[in-house]
Amino acid sequence: MDDRGNRYRVQVENESLLVLREDLYGQWQPIAMAPDLICYLCSNGDTITNAELATTQAEYARQGKPLMLNLFVLPVPDELNTAHFRKLCMDELATIGWPQSKIVSPFADYPETDSRGSEGLLVDVQAIHSIRISQQNREYC
């Protein structure tokens, strides 16, 4: 949860693909997705990659501490902001079961594309500072 009590989730499949925020009715609403850059910083200022999330979270759990993260989104660089790259992102989102065909971005209003899909690693951001990682109903806390 962030300072206002909002809960966030990040859908990960090699890359952070989708950020969802829980609304007042318990429904998860998209607030950002690839091609925008979904990034994390540890509370001590260290960067952390998706590949490091599970192992770092497990290490913190062994120490009896929550992994504190700051989640932020940056706009996709202009060089990558092409129709072809956006289509690749939507195709990847479809492989994790994203049912929509429109990119959601806090930075731009993108046109719809066509895609469908299955399941990946889900990073549950319990606070903009604390995460829980689950994969296919298994939790690593």
Describe the 3D structure:
The structure is a single chain. It is globular, with a radius of gyration of 15 Å. The protein is α+β, with helices and mostly antiparallel strands and 141 residues long. The chain has helices spanning 50-62, 83-95, and strands at residues 8-13, 15-22, 28-33, 37-42, 69-74, 121-127, 130-135, 138-140. It has two helices and eight strands. Helices cover 18% and strands 34% of the residues. The protein has a six-stranded antiparallel beta sheet, sandwiched between helices. A two-stranded antiparallel sheet has the order 4-5. The protein starts with 7 loop residues before the first strand and ends with a strand.
End-to-end C-alpha gap? 16 Å
Radius of gyration (Å)? 15 Å
Query: Structural class from helices and strands?
Result: alpha+beta
Strands, count: 8
Q: Segments where pLDDT lies below 50 for 5+ residues?
A: 114-141
The whole-number mean of residue pLDDT values reads 75
